[in-house]
Amino acid sequence: MPYKYAYITGCDILAVFWFLIYLKRKDLRREMLWASLWGMPFGLIDYFLVPRYWNPESIFGLIKKYGVGPESFIFFFLMAGIVSVIYEFLYRRKTTKFRVRKHLRYLPFLIGAAVFCLLLFVFPDSAIYALIAGGAAGALFTIYFRPDLWRQVIASAFIFSLLYFFVLFLVNQIFSGMVQNFYNLKNLWGILVLGVPLEEIAVAFFAGAFWSTSYEFIKSYKDRRL
């Protein structure tokens, strides 16, 4: 099967989980759509990853030409929506409004973005590690300012990184040799977990931890059991 379908196939698998959650939990739809729409522009991150980190084929060949393609934005749309509600979905939680100091609500995002941009400026060929560090910084500051969210941050990070690992592992089985074909392994840590680069798991963990409570933090919500 041509490798140009690998990226979109991964998106298709994520879409199954996205729609499953969306259809099963009407109360989470607003949060999912908010997180997905705000997360979609982060598809531009692919521009900084190509070709140093990876150089995937795509259905229209746009990623090799411009560094980004439709798959980039579809992937971040799906990923952002899933990770934002996966904790509430699995643990049967729902969000409720409460009072919070609104002047702090964007601070973790500014800190995460600042860490990412600073490291990207200093180490322009290591965008993936800047993304990991930015996600970790944002998650830590989220927990610092909203300690009531720590359980959701940690649980979401573990759950989503396992889900993401499963998707990548499955796509790599369908498109045998995809990892070796897409990723510049000589520029990475060189650690593969059942064929999946460790960097991918780390990004899913730390970026997932950061984005998992973005809705609760900005909109001043907390979760409680259904």
Helix/strand layout:
Elements lengths: L5 H19 L4 H11 L6 H4 L12 H5 L3 H22 L1 E5 L9 H16 L4 H19 L4 H25 L3 H5 L9 E2 L2 E2 H14 L2 H6 L1 E5 L1
Antiparallel strand pairs: 1-4, 2-3
Helix pairs in contact: 1-5, 1-8, 2-5, 5-8, 6-7, 7-10, 8-10
Offer a few descriptive terms:
mainly alpha
Count of individual beta strands: 4
Q: How much strand?
A: 5-15%
Largest sheet: 2 strands, antiparallel
SSE order? HHHHHEHHHHEEHHE
Q: Poorly predicted ranges (pLDDT <50, ≥5 residues)?
A: none
Helix fraction, binned, reads 55-70%
Based on CA atoms alone, the radius of gyration comes out at: 17 Å
How confident overall, as mean pLDDT?
92
Distance between the termini: 44 Å
Strand order of the largest sheet: 1-4
Overall 3D form: globular
Annotation field: number of helices: 11
Count of the domains: 1
Structural class: mainly alpha
Describe, in short, the structure shown.
65% of the residues lie in helices and 6% in strands.
Describe this structure in words.
The mean pLDDT is 92. The strands form 2 sheets. This protein has a two-stranded antiparallel ribbon with strand order 1-4. A two-stranded antiparallel sheet has the order 2-3. Strand 2 (192-193) and strand 3 form a beta hairpin. It is built from 11 helices and 4 strands. Helix 5 crosses helix 8 (150-174). With 226 residues, the chain is mainly alpha-helical. It has one domain. The longest helix is centred in the C-terminal third of the chain and has 25 residues, at 150-174. It is globular.
